[in-house]
Specification:
This protein has four helices and seven strands. With 158 residues, the protein is of the alpha/beta class. The protein has a domain of 69 residues: Roll (Chitinase A, domain 3). Helix 1 runs antiparallel to helix 2. It comes from Sphingopyxis witflariensis. GO terms for molecular function: DNA binding; kinase activity; RNA polymerase binding.
Amino acid sequence: MSVAFRRESDDEHKEPAFELPIAVGPNLVTPRGKRLLGEEIVRLNALVAATAEEEPRNKLQRQLRYFATRDITAEIQAPPADGSVGIGARVTYRFNGAERTITIVGGDEADPARGHIAFSAPLARAMMGAEAGESVAYQDREDAIEILAAHADPEVQA
């Protein structure tokens, strides 16, 4: 029989479902980040229990495995000293003449729209360990970023 007339299963054409990628390196989080991981696990467990269909359930279970791994490997960071840039710090800085404020957080709690950037982001990496009043290199420019202020952000410490 010609291959053209053979009925192949629909599963042969589906994309394989790989595990969600986990970032390389330590899983540094704020206290809020650790709490959010736990809340997401509870939410996903409830959705898995309420989902009867196999494919949506498998997707939820894949997400659950990701967040469970992130929760187990989470390393809660102590708040940075006042004036120091670190995970959990709210940093006011000047870059290209514009003053901005961000909070440096763990990878899973990053939300750039809210001003929360991951400690692994290039901007955060450039500022980590700096003190208020210092200038740091960024994008191949010496003294590109001036740290105006840094303090522990109470929102991410709870």
